[in-house]
Each structure stands twice: as C-alpha cells, then as structure tokens.
From TrEMBL:
One of its GO terms (molecular function) is iron ion binding. It catalyses: cholesterol + reduced [NADPH--hemoprotein reductase] + O2 = (22S)-22-hydroxycholesterol + oxidized [NADPH--hemoprotein reductase] + H2O + H(+). The keyword Membrane applies. It comes from the Eukaryota. This is Cytochrome P450. Its cofactor is heme.
C-alpha cells in the first residue's frame, strides 16, 4: 500500500468518525432534556440509603425527610436501595401512583424481600398473578364473613389475651398484641388453636422469621437474615404437612373438618400450585399479624396521653355494654361494632399518627410526567405515606393525637374551622388502588374490639419511658411495658 493511499484511508476513517460524532451530538440535541426533580444521588451504589433508613420517632418523618423536603420540595430525586429513585411526599403524586398501578407503575420491592417472603408472596407479585392471589384473600375476608364468622373469633381471642393479664404486673403490651393477632390469624388460616404446642412452636419460628424480614439482608452465619431463612424453611415444612393432611381428608370425603380456614378454602376453590399456596399463606401470616399488632400497641401508647379521649371511649363502650346486658346478650354483634363511632375515630387517628406502613416500593414502567417533572421508565418511585399523614398543610397540628379530627359534626375537641384533616383522599394507611390491603377491614375490626374490652376491663399506665420508632418498620424498643389494674365500667 502506497503512502498516499494510506493517508487517504486515514482521512476517510477520520471523516467517518467525525460524521458519527456530529450525528450523535445532533441526536442528543434533538432528544428532549429530562426535567428531573431536584435532589442528589449520594454515594456510588448505596446512594442515600443509609440516611433514608436511619431510625427516627414514628410520629415524625425523620431528619432525613425533613431536610430533603426543606431543600428540594415534596418531590425529589435520590439513589436508594441501589437504584435511581423519585421520592414523593406529595399527596397528589402518591394518589396518582397508586391509582395507576399496572398502567404507569408497578410494585418493586428489593430482591431481599422476595427472597425471604417467597416469589409468590402477594407483597412482591405484579400483574394477573397478584390479582388472582388478592381475589382469594378478598373472598376469604369478605364483608359477610367478617360479620357472621370472624367477629366472634376476634372477640374470643381478645378475651383470651386480656384474661391472662395479672393485676399490677408489668409486661410488654407489644408482645401481648402480637400474641393476639398471631393466634387469630393462625386460627383462620391453619385452624390452629391458641396455646397448644404446635401453635407456640410456629409462633417462635415466626418471631425469628420476622426479625430477618426487617434486617439487613446478609446471608452469613449468625445473621438475623440467615436465621430467618432457616425459620422460613421450618414454617413451610409445617404448612406443607398440614396441606398433605387436608388433601387426604378431602379425598376421603372428610373435608368439613377445617372448612372454615383459608388453607381448606384455597385447596377447594383454587388451582394454585403447592409452592404458590405456601408463599400465599406465609405472606398472609406476615400481613395479618405484624401491622395489626403494632397498630394496637400504638393505640395503647397514645391513649394515656389523651385523658379526654379515654373518657369518651369509656362512655361509648359503657353504653354499648349496658345495652347488651339489658338485652341479655353476651357476644358483640355487627350493630355493636357500628355503634363504636368514636372508637373508629381513635382507630383512624392511631393509623394516621403511627404510620405502620411508612412508604411503598414502586417502579415506573413508562416515562411519566407529573407537575412538570419527568419520572423516567425504570426508575424506582417511593410514595411516602407517612409524610402526607404528617403534613401540616393537610392535617391540623399533625403531631397531636386528636381523634376528633375524624368527626364531621364539629363536636368538642374537633379541629379548628377550615381544617381539612378528615379528607379521606389524603388518608391512605392501607395503600390504595388495585393493591389496597385486602385485610384493612379486619385490621380495623381487631383494633376496635380489642379497645372495647380493654377500656371496659382495665386501667393501664406506661411502666417505663418508651416510644415507637421507625426502622423503617415501626417498633417499640422496650416492647411498650405497661402496668394494668382491673376494673369494671358496668
């Protein structure tokens, strides 16, 4: 090859590269620039995750959120859980995200959650499979079933726990609430009776499992996550053993033995595989136990600090109990439950101020524009429910426990005129849209019935200083120690 030919080839290559570069620049210029929300991405890979998950008082949004909202506004960008993320403390955007589930956004929990709850868990499933699993749960927790069957058992399990309390003793209210909700959910899912050996063994394994769900996902010897994986295996073997026994009974025509529990219902009315049934039951044990028990503990914590609310609860439940006594009735009815109007206000206020579910994990599945901001496809989106519930522009004095804010008649103790605190569009303790918690009505029923019998039979006080912290799961570091004295309001 001649020298001139070599120069010609080199010039052609340079021109070709130059042309490609010009085309690349032109394409980049013609592509619209994204208007991302303000914010910073933090450290490589971990981003700002450590600051975001730093524990803080559950009745606040924490220093991290306060600083970011003050600096960037209610919608900001960050890097969390190893992914680029849009964080929303904006009520409108949060509703928009939940209402567009499956259209613009989908559930996107960290892999570690799916690894421990199971790939068929309702928490991590998306699309048709999630819908099918949710339909099963909704059928089992139907309004008719709550009225005719579950109310009786909620009351029965409440009284089992309360009657075990010893006068003037100090104990963990959080543990007692967890015992109540676990026994109830174990009965309705697997027909396990409270107090027997296998129920207690399952509960101990479940406590270990729960500690791992909310721990750092390090699968190393001695870690809470490794112990939880071992407990998960033990729990699944236990459930599978129950399944095999049920299948034999159904085949033998003895299916009525446990026909009221979820396991039998699923075996008879669904086409789910064994693995799917196991993950469904495990996730329902998780969902039906943890959030309800923490909410009950929060009510026990908040009420002593509001004597006026305690007095109004006593009046309400005394009136219900006296009417039942005069009618010669013993068990609570659905009409009694509906009469607990102020109790429902207390339940709502406990859920609003305590925020058991702090935020949700979502992902944009299409490019989305909201209020002039772009949310790119594939980015993580975190609607922070707690930030809306504690927003002073939406809830008057949001850090104040005020059940009267949920009354519409402006009775004593209600919010100042003009407050929009009772606007249910901003109240999303159970999420919303197609993924609205299937057990939300059961959770409120559990809280109301527990409060009914607690108020009627006991006076309690906090035995030690303790408060709920967000880790981000909500927990009382000392277990909420209380001391009780028995009394009767009748």
């Amino acid at each position: 090859m001649s020298f001139s030919h070599l120069i010609l080839c080199s010039l052609s290559s340079i021109l070709a590269l130059l042309l490609i570069f010009i085309l690349f620049i032109k394409r980049k210029q013609t592509k619209p620039k994204l208007n991302l929300p303000p914010g910073k991405m933090g450290w490589p890979f971990i981003g700002e995750t450590i600051g975001y998950l730093k524990p803080y008082s559950a009745t606040t949004i924490g220093e991290f959120m306060e600083q970011h909202i003050a600096r960037y506004g209610k919608i900001y960008k960050s890097k969390l859980f190893g992914e680029k993320a849009i964080v929303s403390a904006d009520a409108g955007l949060n509703r928009f995200i939940l209402q567009n589930e499956g259209k613009l956004f989908e559930c996107s929990y960290p892999r570690s959650i799916g690894g421990i709850l199971g790939k068929w868990s309702m928490l991590v499933l998306v699309g048709d499979m999630h819908r099918d699993m949710r339909v099963i749960s909704l059928n089992f927790l139907s309004h008719a079933r709550l009225r005719t069957y579950m109310l009786k058992d909620v009351e029965k399990h409440t009284l089992l726990v309360l009657k075990s309390w010893k006068e003037n003793s100090t104990f963990s209210a959080q543990d007692e609430a967890k015992k109540f909700t676990f026994n109830l959910v174990a009965k309705h899912i697997l027909n396990l009776d409270p107090g027997n050996l296998e129920t207690e063994q399952l509960r101990k394994e479940y406590v270990t499992f729960m500690k791992g769900v909310v721990s750092v996902p390090l699968n190393l010897p001695g870690t809470a996550y490794r112990k939880a994986l071992k407990s998960r295996s033990t729990i699944l073997k236990f459930i599978e053993g129950k399944m095999e026994g049920r299948v034999r009974r159904i085949q033998e025509g003895n299916e009525s033995l446990e026909e009221e529990d979820l396991l039998n219902w699923v075996l008879k009315h669904s086409n789910l595989s064994t693995e799917q049934i196991l993950d469904l039951i495990l996730s329902l044990l998780f969902a039906g136990h943890e959030t309800s028990s923490v909410s009950i503990a929060l009510a026990i914590y908040f009420l002593p600090g509001c004597p006026q609310a305690m007095q109004q609860l006593k009046e309400e439940h005394r009136e219900i109990a006296r009417a039942k006594k005069q009618a010669g009735e013993v068990e609570l009815t659905w009409d009694d439950y509906k009469k607990m109007e102020f109790t429902h206000c207390v339940v709502n206020e406990t859920l609003r101020l305590g925020n058991v579910v702090r935020f949700l994990h979502r992902k944009a599945i299409k490019d989305v524009r909201y209020k002039g901001y772009d949310i790119p496809c594939g980015w993580k989106v975190l609607p922070v429910i707690a930030a809306v519930h504690l927003d002073p522009s939406l809830f008057d004095q949001p850090q104040h426990f005020n059940p009267w804010r949920w009354q519409n008649n402006g009775s004593r103790g209600s919010c100042p005129s003009g407050s929009i605190a009772s606007n249910n569009n901003n109240f999303l303790p159970f999420g919303g849209g197609p993924r609205l918690c299937a057990g939300s009505e059961l959770a409120k029923l559990e809280m109301a019935v527990f409060i009914h019998h607690l108020i009627l039979n006991y006076h309690w006080e906090l035995a030690d200083t303790d408060e709920a912290f967000a880790y981000p799961f909500v927990d009382f570091p000392k277990g909420l120690p209380i001391k009780v004295q028995a009394h009767s309001l009748l």
